[in-house]
Amino acid sequence: MRNGEAVIEVRGMTKRFDELTAVDHVDLTVRAGEIYGFLGPNGSGKTTFLRMLCGLLRADDGNGQVLGHDVIAESEAIKREVGYMTQRFSFWEDLSIEENLDFVARIYGVKNRQAAVRQSLDELGLTQRKTQLAGQLSGGWKQRLALAACLIHRPKLLLLDEPTAGVDPKARRDFWEEIHQLAAEGLTFLITTHYMDEAERCQRLAYISKGKLLADGTVDEVISRVGLTTWSVRGPDLSQLADQLRETRGVQQAVAFGNSLHVSSNNASELEHAIAPFRHEPYQWQQIPSGLEDAFISLMDDGKS
Amino acid sequence: MKRHPKFSFQRLVGIISKEFLQMRRDRLTFAMMLGIPLIQLTLFGYAINSDPRHLPAAVLLADQGAQGRTLLYAMKNSTYFDFVREVKTEAEGYNLLARGQVQFVINIPQNFSRDLLRGDRPALLVEADATDPAATGIALGSLPPLFDAALQNDLKGPLASLSSTSGPIDLRVHALYNPEVVTQYNIVPGLMGVILTMTMVMITGLAITRERERGTMENLLSMPTRPSEVLVGKIVPYILVGYIQVSVILIAARFLFHVPMQGSILLLLLVAFVFIVANLAMGITFSTIAKNQLQAVQMAFFVFLPSILLSGFMFPFRGMPHWAQVIGEAFPLTHFLRIVRGILLKGNGLIDVSLQLWQIALFALIVLAIAVKRYRQTLD
Fold it and tell me: What is the pTM of this model?
């Protein structure tokens, strides 16, 4: 699959659970070699969407292709070429690292199985611990094992469901370096996450809330699409100021970022008017470009109303 | 789209070896697999007696006189015996006994009435299938007073002296297959079926619900596995466990309880395969229906209890009311008990046991078909 070619191209994907529409007509295109971030609050339908892509859930509506196979009818073929890493660790805790990898390799019919398992252990730096039971591993090591197992059959597309939840910052950084390395080799990633810093590492993003896709594109595209104007303010007693600003008409959000407060709205003139009474000593005001987090908080608030 | 073979042997081997590894890690369950047969064997020293009536009997009547018939009527009226067949030769009678079609063969020899009236104390032979002593004991015990009472009318007046102390006839009982009438001879082979039912249904009952509860099912389903591969892969390792249990019980039966082994042990091992698979298949079917491990255990008990009560293990099968026998026929254990007792105590061969065997095999096939149909390939 050449870079730029669509690896995932689905339209109108819908999944209903009784009354609840978990995923509501979501369109998504992911191109080969891309790291695509899939963001949204808890329960927004991210996991359900990934499960539909790899045939774990039957879609109620929608069509399209994944790796050239029909997303509805050819889930068996999709499973063979996709690596899916579940949100909760789902390998066998009473098997050792090596036994888990060996089992997965057998199921996928990997050629030269033993060599493949050995190589996978080496690449991920797990060789020393191969006889350790998976259940005894720490969060970071479990995640490394899960990634190794997902890669052992050389998939073309990886679906990772909140892969770094509960993993320490160092392990998270190593993990993302690994992802970028693999993407450079031609692998395509669709990754769900809560973390803004992770979202910014993705080449393109989609934001989903209550089953609906609210925005997608590159980081800059998503930010400009939300169309926020943001002011940063520094000074004493910012939390008191934030409370006052939230009461003020024309201010959509006032969010603390360390020592400053980000005040935003998608109506620039209204916002300027609203903050005018507060623009005096000891506060220092400055207009700044809106960040991804500002944009997402705005989307999340819109999604609620 | 490229065609892929439906069933992959390699994937099957993968699942089997994974199950073996997990079995090895789960020491407690494995210990129970071995412990249950030993505990049950030591606990079940006693049988539960009951009073079975209407036991099927065949008659070999060579006598022409009236007294022979009088005795048969008396036996029939006692309600212990139902005469279902008349046989012409002793061999024919043995055949019926061996297959379990009758419980008794009553042999009234030629000139029985004449000899009786002459005061010669003629012999009356009762051949009983004593594999289950509880089933025959009471009926046989009722015979001497029954015969005395029946002949009271015939032996009056000058003949009254004949019904004296030693009795007018020479009643000979042959307790076939279990001549010493030892209860353990019946219970111990039966335990083999009971233990296999209990452990095999339970262990596979947990097989799929456990994957679901631990969250590993999502992983297994996201891989290209077929239902038949998963189901068969989860059954195969436990066949070996079943055989370990069979061996433990056979060794205990031979050396601890001195159960006679008339038939071919090889045949028994062969038949055990069908029975083990039937129970494992039943367990895995429960596993596809139950929502969690607790439900699977409950379903296993739901089958286990009536199996043990209605199969002829606890109570003599023929002592049960008709409706209970009909239900009992549905359980594989019922048929397996007949086979094990038949092989060990009666020396039954393949043709004798095939009458029961095909019913177990049919059960296994039906249950497995349900499992394949019920196995969900998605998380819906």
Answer: 0.77
